[in-house]
Amino acid sequence: MLSFWIGYGSNNIGGHGESQSNLAWQLPSIIQGIPAACLALGIWWLPFSPRWLVKQGRDEKALQTLAYLRKLPVDDALIQAEYKEIKAECLFEERAFAKAFPTLHARETQSVWVREFAQYWNIVRTWDNFKRVATAWLVMFFQQWSGIDAIIYYASNVFVNNFAVAFFVPPMFEAWEWGTYIFFAVFLAGGIVWVYFCLPETKGATLEEMDRVFKSHSGEADAIMLAEARRDVGLNPEPETVNDKVALDNGRTSQSQKSHIEEV
Questions:
Q1: Where is this region: Disordered (predicted)?
Q2: pLDDT per residue over 100-139, tens digit each?
């Protein structure tokens, strides 16, 4: 929406047609470039993420970064708990990769590109994983083919903007006219049927309950492996982790708000 208004505001610079100034397209480009330039300059002052540092074996630096980000001393209980959680997650990911790709993991030197490709392949090489990826893909597929591009096509007229919003919708309107809406209506109807019969309900389900939602058991072995990793880094079976503290604080806040409402 913001880009439409920027385009609308700059479209009349210098008039229309041949008299239109080059600033009509240069100004939106400059405005879009300002945040990108700030990010390009500021990234040199950003610290490496604690997770990346742990994966590189730079644990001390990871602790220092966590302390810097949280504004707490390195030996603070929260810093130590969060560090151990990150350490356990990294250890779990390494063991899961070794289990899925033992030959690749056994190599002394590993290509980063090969390792990343293997991770992507892992999300579709089993039926349980493929079903989840396909579900996410189909949600976006039916959303895009519901006819939204045909509606957005008119945004150029609404905002007096000459930019092409879609590549294929204009020629479809020229060739099919009102048949364009029938074309998208077919996909919309198919999407409704798929959502009703195939899309699982995830409302109220936690990430750990996705196995139940998708009627699979692939997460059980991962849960055991993660519990072992947590134990190996020194986390208790029921640790008071950072997430636990956040949830506790949220609960206290909600209770306080409830008491305040009752008093009012």
A1: 230-264
A2: 888 888 776 667 788 888 888 888 888 878 888 888 888 8
